[in-house]
Specification:
Largest sheet: 4 strands, antiparallel
Number of strands: 4
Mean pLDDT: 87
Strand order of the largest sheet: 1-2-3-4
Structural class: mainly beta
Order of helices and strands: EEEE
Radius of gyration: 15 Å
Helix content: under 10%
Number of helices: 0
Strand content: over 45%
Low-confidence stretches: none
């Protein structure tokens, strides 16, 4: 897969905040940790980002979990 960047839109124009991204996945879960697509049931979001190192060598994956407040 071709690598690309993640950009942040600013008044001055787009700013690259990550480069070499080969995969970005969001998994939405309900309060019982089951995968869901229903917006009203989302309580947890798992985020997985895979990037290739600057030397085009190893692939690195970061996984994080966010729990929604006020839900």
């Amino acid at each position: 897969a071709a690598a690309c960047g993640i950009y942040l839109a600013t008044v001055a124009g787009p700013v690259i905040i990550a480069w070499g991204i080969t995969a970005l996945t969001f998994t939405y879960r309900d309060e019982n940790n089951n995968v869901t697509a229903a917006p009203d049931l989302i309580r947890i979001v798992d985020i997985s980002v895979t990037a290739q190192t600057a030397t085009k060598g190893a692939f690195v994956t970061m996984v994080d979990r966010i729990r929604m407040r006020n839900r």
